[in-house]
Write a structure and sequence with these properties.
12 helices
Length: 269
């Protein structure tokens, strides 16, 4: 499966940055995520990024004076990232390593103070514990993890059943995952709830913040919505941000952001 993921995202790397530039919804979601991350980062934190893609988040964090070690399974994505590192002269702040998130035993540069993964990269695995089991060894005590995950319930998708789009409306509820098609390459993605994530982390991690992304406002694939209804879109995003920490809007959304804190002695308490 991960060979397919690598191939799909390497192909997508050629259009990834340009697609985001033209997608106002994606840009808004990323800006909300950046604000969330900056609330939790400490001045000298060393960051590990999983599924770093073309380095959009890494460049943002580096420009805020943070050191980031970027990992991604996709050679194409890392080629784009490494080009940015060279062009922006960020070698002292950003390093990269081609690595799957299930192979973190091969990671170099640890320990880290903060682990970050954006936009559903971890939805490519059914077994989150295969990833999280490494965090106990590579994260400093008191360190934090922020993940942006695609959950099983998205109000906008469920509402699409009104138009008869039953396959879209309830696809996230399928227990065995859903087939994704990126650049003609197919692989399975899985939708993870807060409860599933908390269980996979285990007793050494404590949830400290959950924030919804695009619960009230439309998901990114509705790319034309902000252009067709600009005032309505702005209103929906304002409501979204206001309610994003309130249940159920912090869990039922296109994505949600979850931040946990690591305490290796917590399981002994």
């Amino acid at each position: 499966m991960f060979d397919s993921v690598q191939k799909a995202f390497s192909l997508q790397s050629e259009i990834f940055d340009e697609y985001e530039k033209g997608n106002e919804i994606l840009r808004w979601m990323r800006s909300v995520t950046h604000k969330h991350v900056l609330r939790h980062l400490r001045k000298n934190d060393k960051i590990l990024e999983l599924n770093s893609g073309t380095g959009i988040d890494a460049v943002f964090l580096a420009k805020n004076s943070f050191r980031i070690h970027c990992t991604d399974i996709s050679e194409g994505m890392l080629n784009k990232l490494n080009k940015k590192i060279t062009e922006l002269k960020l070698h002292e702040l950003i390093t990269s390593q081609q690595l799957s998130f299930i192979d973190l035993d091969k990671l170099y540069g640890h320990p880290f103070d903060y682990i970050f993964s954006n936009f559903g990269g971890l939805n490519c695995t059914e077994n989150l514990s295969d990833v999280f089991k490494h965090f106990n060894k590579i994260l400093n005590p008191g360190g934090k993890v922020t993940l942006v995950i695609i959950p099983p319930i998205c109000p906008w998708e469920i509402a699409s059943f009104i138009k008869g789009n039953f396959s879209t409306a309830f696809r996230r509820l399928r227990k065995n995952g859903v087939t994704a098609n990126i650049e003609g390459v197919k692989f399975t993605i899985y939708y993870h709830s807060v409860a599933r994530i908390e269980k996979a982390f285990g007793p050494n991690f404590r949830i400290i913040e959950i924030q919804g992304l695009a619960s009230i406002s439309p998901p990114p694939y509705m790319i034309n919505f902000p252009k067709r209804f600009p005032r309505l879109y702005k209103t929906l995003t304002r409501i979204d941000e206001k309610l994003s920490h309130t249940f159920p809007f912090n869990r039922w959304a296109d994505h949600f952001i979850i931040t946990v804190e690591f305490n290796p002695n917590r399981s002994q308490i």
